[in-house]
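EI: anyone free to look at a 217-residue chain?
SC: sure, send it
EI:
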Amino acid sequence: MDEQGKTTEKKKYSVVDKRFDIDEIEPADAPPPPPPPPAAEQAQPGMETATDAGDAAQSEDDGQERDYRIEDAVRLALGTIREQALFALGLIIKKNRSPKQDMDKIARITKIFNELSDKFADVLASEGAAEPDQPEPTIQEVVIFIFNMLNGQVMMHLGLIPNPVTNLSVRDLSQAKLGIDFCAALLEAARSEVDPALAKQLEAVISEMRMAFVNLK
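SC: here you go
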């Protein structure tokens, strides 16, 4: 109570995340921030506290913060060489790309890449730069993977299944049409690489997606 016998109401404050609400105004009578610790308690230059050491070790273990190393440069170098091979193959999409493959350049670039990647495989593996050791997928397996992926995306953009992230159903017919058209073009381009029985199954999937699209227009 105050001197006049009246009950003084204590103001309550709630914690507000101001990173996403720039209009939130802090109360004028909010308590000031605590003063800095005494100079004797502050870490001296060149000295590392136990907490700092633990944080640094944790960051290093997580791989989030560390010095740029030669292994990183080697990985970047091999990636650049591989990109040149993709240019020669015509697999990097550019407006001015040549429709013809430069087989001589492909052979030379591939030779350089293979020699370097084999010679430094241990270094790359130790840094997690090497790709996992697994069998190369067939073209048919790649086609099946793409169909499975796009079929789910198309159904989601048709609003027939909810978005797995937001759990909301949102309809976007233009996106759905793009997925359907891509699946149809993919099957046509890779038909010779796919078993006839599987091709019929994929045609049925395309027909199902098209029918669902038409019913929603």
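EI: Residues 73 and 155 are 42 Å apart (CA to CA).
SC: 👍
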